[in-house]
Amino acid sequence: MTTIPSRLAQVTRISSNPSEARTRVIDLYRAWVRAAPEIVELYALPVTPAYVRHCIRQKFEANRHVTDQRAVEVLLLKGRQELQETLNIWKQPDHVMGILLQPNERPQRSFLQKFYEGRDEDSVRPAASGVV
């Protein structure tokens, strides 16, 4: 299948008010949800489209609390970019499985693991942990 990079390209724009930003977020969410079956098919993922939709919902819910309009615009830009890169097959299946479908939670660590990292706080993510 050949990809057409301009197929999903959109002009970058800034929302004039929060209601317009909300509409754009909902449109982006719908685009992701509608693309779930295509994503599963393109990357031959060992998951169902329903699971991909569930993971997409979790990603959007994780940013539900964001109210700063500039932060919302950045998230919209990144979300649209991720969608375009995913549907144009500019990613490897591992990227889709790792970034999109894997939860972003840190595994529980014992006291010694925290000690070896040189930290006791759970809120700080050390650079050497490999967790983004």
Q: Give the helix level as a range of percent.
A: 55-70%
Give the class from helix and strand content and strand pairing: mainly alpha
H and E string: HHHHH
Strand content: under 5%
Poorly predicted runs are none
- The overall pLDDT average reads 83
Spatial gap, N to C terminus: 32 Å
According to DSSP, the number of beta strands is: 0
Short note summarizing the structure:
With 132 residues, this protein is mainly alpha-helical. The protein has helices at residues 18-43, 49-62, 69-87, 93-101, 111-117.
Topology (elements, then pairings):
Blueprint: H1 18-43, H2 49-62, H3 69-87, H4 93-101, H5 111-117
Helix pairs in contact: 1-2, 1-3
Describe this structure in words.
This protein has 132 residues and is mainly α. The protein contains five helices and no strands. Helix 1 runs antiparallel to helix 2 (49-62) and helix 1 packs parallel to helix 3. The longest helix is centred in the N-terminal third of the chain and has 26 residues, at 18-43. The model has no long low-confidence stretch (mean pLDDT 83).
